[in-house]
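Progress note, sequence design subtask.
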C-alpha cells in the first residue's frame, strides 16, 4: 500500500488549496478513504472521510462547509478541496486507508495559512 499526498503550500487566510492523494497497492475503489491533519504540538485529528463509491462523505465540525472530499476511482485519487482557509487549518495533512490488518498513511503535505 502506498499513499502519496501533494498540493500543500502557503496560502493567505481566506484562500483555497486542493490536496491530492495518489493511492496504489490495493483495490482503491473498495475502501473508505480519510484525511487527517496534525498541527504543531497537537495530536493528529480526523478531517474528512469518503465512502468507497464516493456517495457518502463526513466532516469534522471544524471544517464542515469549507472543505470538500472527493475521489476518482478510475485514477485512484482522493482529493481535499479546502476553501476559506483559516490560520488554525495550518497543519500537515495526511491521507489514510484502513485496510485490515494495517492502517496506512502517506508522508503528509504541509499546509500553512498565513498572511
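Output:
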Amino acid at each position: 500500500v502506498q499513499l502519496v499526498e501533494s498540493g500543500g503550500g502557503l496560502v493567505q487566510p481566506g484562500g483555497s488549496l486542493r490536496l491530492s492523494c495518489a493511492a496504489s497497492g490495493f483495490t482503491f475503489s473498495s475502501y473508505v478513504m480519510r484525511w487527517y491533519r496534525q498541527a504543531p504540538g497537537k495530536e493528529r485529528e480526523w478531517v474528512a472521510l469518503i465512502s468507497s463509491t464516493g456517495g457518502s462523505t463526513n466532516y469534522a465540525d471544524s471544517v464542515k462547509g469549507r472543505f470538500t472530499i472527493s475521489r476518482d476511482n478510475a485514477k485512484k485519487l482522493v482529493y481535499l478541496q479546502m476553501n476559506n482557509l483559516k490560520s488554525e487549518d495550518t497543519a500537515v495533512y495526511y491521507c489514510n486507508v484502513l485496510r485490515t490488518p494495517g492502517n496506512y498513511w502517506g508522508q503528509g503535505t504541509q499546509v500553512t495559512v498565513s498572511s
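The chain has a mean pLDDT of 97. Work on this subtask will continue into the next period as scheduled.
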